[in-house]
Structure prediction request, 213 residues.
Amino acid sequence: MKKIITGLMLVITMAYMSSCATILGGKISECQKTTPRAGDSKRKVNVGWLLTDIIFAAPIALLVDFSTGAIYHNCTYSVPIETGSIKDNFTIKFLDKNIELVPNVFFNVKDQHLIENSCDAGHLVPGGFQSSGVTYKITIVHNNKTYYGRIGFYKVADECKGEGVASFYRIAIPEKSFIDANEGSQSCWGEFTIGGGVKRPTWIIWLSDVQIF
Prediction:
C-alpha cells in the first residue's frame, strides 16, 4: 500500500513538474482560473504554452495546465470598457435622464452620455463601496417592489487596468442586496478589477426601498 501511495505521489509530482505553463508561467490570476459566466468573454488559450505542452509533455501537462487555468492568457484589459448589459431580471430607470436599461440588451455608456469616473473615484470600504465621482439616481423594480438608488460607472483602461471580471459592465444584483435594502436600510453592490493588489470598482449600485439618496 505504501508503495502504491508513493507511486501516485510521484506521478502527481511529475505531472505538475511537466506542466510548462503552471510551473513557468508565473502567478495564475483569478481571471485565468475562473470559468466565464454566461455572456462573458471566453478565456483565450495561450498558443505558445499549448504547443509546448503538446511537444514536451502531453497529455498530462495539458490536463494540469487547463485545470489550473495557466494555459489561458491573463485577462488584463488595456482598452476601455464602454458597453454594458443587465444580466438579471430587472430594469433600471434613470430619474434625471430619459434612459431605461433592460435585461440582455447592450448599451454604450458614451452613447447614453453617462460619465465614467476615474477608477480612483470609487473604492472599497468596510461594508461596501464609496464614491467621490458622478452617480445617477435610478429606480429598480424587483419582485413588484420599487427600490431607489444610485449607480456609478468607473474606468477600467489605462492606469485603471487590471484583472477584469468581464469585458463589459455586467450588471447583476444578488437577492441578499435587495433584502438588505428593505425597511429604510441601504445596501450596495458592484463589480471590480484587481490591479497591483488594489480592488477598483467598474460599477456600483446603492439601493434602498425609500428615497434616501
The longest strand covers residues 198-208. The chain is about 25% helix and 30% strand. Residues 33 and 69 are 5 Å apart (CA to CA). Residues 2-17 form the longest helix (16 residues).
